[in-house]
Design brief:
Blueprint lengths: L2 E3 L3 H10 L4 H15 L1 E3 L11 H18 L1 H5 E7 L2 H4 L4 H9 L10 E6 L2 H6 L11 H5 L2 H4 L7 H24 L4 H4 L2 E2 L11 H21 L4
Antiparallel strand pairs: 1-2, 3-4, 4-5
């Protein structure tokens, strides 16, 4: 620990030096004697540790998955479609439909209705399978040496078990969300104000459950990583 002389020591130094014949030879010794009688501790400010970039990305990954789950309906429903009203398609309204078509107004608000469909696009972006976001390569980051070294040796088994569960759950989310892009829900339209309830057997719902499990597993794995 470094020592700093108190301001009052200056006068005492001067007095000691008057008694020393060889000023240049004994100045340092006299100053040291005085400082030893009046010291204050020097507190060094420790530098903050630099966060590991892989751990940062994995932490962001849990935040991204949590955000996706909290906004699931908004992320999986696309209401950018416009359909011709069913009554216009009836035989008795054929002439009226042709009239509207001739006026190029089939998609005018007066002749169309906003329809919605289930979509898997945002989900697949969020889980990293399209090459976007912090989930890209998350399984590999969990196994990198710089990350594993931050885990207590006594917790390594639990850490690797959580990492494996995360990998399996994310793989299931990938599979179910991919299938959701071409199943019945992806082509079935419904009115914006008539959003259907979630089907427990739909591909999107099974993908959602897999994402819930993946997020829990990732959080558990990170709980063993020392910052």
């Amino acid at each position: 620990m470094k020592r700093l002389c108190c301001p009052a020591a200056a006068l005492l130094v001067s007095m000691v030096l008057r008694e020393v014949q060889c000023y240049s030879c004994n100045r340092r010794r006299a100053f040291a004697i005085v400082c030893s009688t009046c010291t204050v501790p020097f507190v060094a400010h420790a530098e903050e540790p630099i966060a590991d970039p892989d751990v940062q990305l994995l932490t962001e990954a849990t935040e991204v998955l949590s955000s996706l789950l909290e906004n699931w309906d908004k992320a999986t429903i696309d209401c950018t479609y416009a359909d011709v009203p069913r009554e216009l398609l009836e035989t008795k309204n054929k002439e009226k439909l042709l009239e509207k078509a001739s006026e190029f107004a089939l998609f005018d608000k007066s002749t169309s209705v906003v329809s919605c469909r289930k979509t898997n696009k945002i989900v697949r972006d969020y889980i990293g399978v399209t090459g976007k976001g912090p989930l890209v390569g998350a399984e590999k980051k969990l196994l990198r040496k710089n990350v594993v070294q931050k885990v207590d040796p006594d917790s390594l088994d639990d850490y690797f078990a959580a990492a494996e569960s995360f990998s399996q759950d994310l793989s299931r989310a990938n599979s179910f969300s991919y299938q959701a892009g071409s199943d019945f829900d992806s082509i079935n339209t419904f009115a914006k104000e008539e959003i259907p309830e979630r089907s427990s057997n739909s591909n999107l719902e099974q993908a959602r459950r897999a994402i819930v499990n993946a997020n829990d597993s990732l959080k558990k794995a990170l709980s063993y990583v020392n910052s």
